[in-house]
Amino acid sequence: MQTWMRPHADGNEHDGIIPRDASESWERHPADGMVGCSAAIREVLELVQRVAPTTSTVLIQGETGTGKELVARAIHRASSRAGHPFVAINCAAITESLLESELFGHAKGAFTGATAQKIGKIESATGGTLFLDEISELAAPMQAKLLRVLQEREVEPVGGTCSIKVDVRILAATNRNLEAEVRAGRFREDLFFRLNVLNITTPPLRDRREDIPLLAESFVMKVSKKYNVPVKALSAQAQALMMDYDWPGNVRELENAIERAVVLGDADEIVPEDLPKSIREAPASEPDAGYYCAIKHSKRQLIVRALGQANGHYIQAAKILGLHPNSLLRLIRNLGLKASARELPAS
């Protein structure tokens, strides 16, 4: 199951309720890979729908690999700024001396090597959204400069003599507890309050285990397309191991494990031997509430396989599965598999 979102046609707030006559453009685009049927991910997507139409700053918190940038992109694409730039910068990946120039730009001759004027990331995001990942890694001087941007909505390039007004929405993310960083004196309290107007927490994968089969399926499709190889099914044993594993690297670790299995596996399906050793040898977890999602995933796999064998003809696929065509038709519609089938009767 993929969750779809639709923006407001006019970009205004409607108390988080999406009007039925809003623009249809978003419905063609999933929430940037945000897949799942769990209560945890549904709550995140509901928050995305509520905050997207506003202009407020959003702080996205969560462990590494939980999809914080995906949430930021989903907010941007569901907002009235979707037609303007989404500019992302990782505050931890650039040295302090270079980060100021990257964010604010610089004037010609501002320092050795500044042979031309450069527009900074903040100014280049005008009209759109600036995503500051790993915001907790900003050094104190940069925190002060960012605070001024949030307060005054203007930037001053390095070596420049005047300020430039900017219209940009700022989304920030961190894998740290910013309140604890404030108490420890490593992060400005006033900047924290400016950033923490709206807050979204991305759940770790161990808290949304019922989404693992759906995520795995989506990654298999993605990797198979990337390397132009046949799509493999997940064996029951491999799926059981993935459901039991705690995924300290979260969704990113799952994606990497699936890519490894697709590329290195020799069988027609993904088996335990294709998974990393850390997953195969992990101690089993307690049974989780992912039972119903796992059943749904298995149904999807069986139906997609039958539709593939029948070249998309659902009546022939029903014969393959031993189902009445009407029963298969209901399953196709309920599981969101219309795109895999051809010549469906009008609903």
Choose one word for the global shape: elongated
Number of β-strand runs: 11
Radius of gyration: 23 Å
| Name of the level-1 CATH class of the largest domain | Alpha Beta
Give the N-to-C terminal Cα separation.
20 Å
**Class per helix and strand makeup:** alpha/beta
What count of helical segments does DSSP give? Answer: 14
| Helix and strand pattern | HEHEHEEHEHEEEHHEHEHHEHHHH
Quickly give the CATH architecture of the largest domain. Answer: 3-Layer(aba) Sandwich
CATH topology of the largest domain: Rossmann fold
Question: Average pLDDT across residues?
Answer: 83
Low-confidence stretches: 1-31
Strand content bin: 5-15%
Biggest sheet descriptor: 5 strands, parallel
* Percent in helix: 40-55%
The CATH superfamily of the largest domain is identified as P-loop containing nucleotide triphosphate hydrolases
Taking strands numbered 1, 2, ... along the chain, how are they ordered across the largest sheet? 2-5-8-1-9
How many domains? 2
Q: What kind of oligomer do you see?
A: single chain
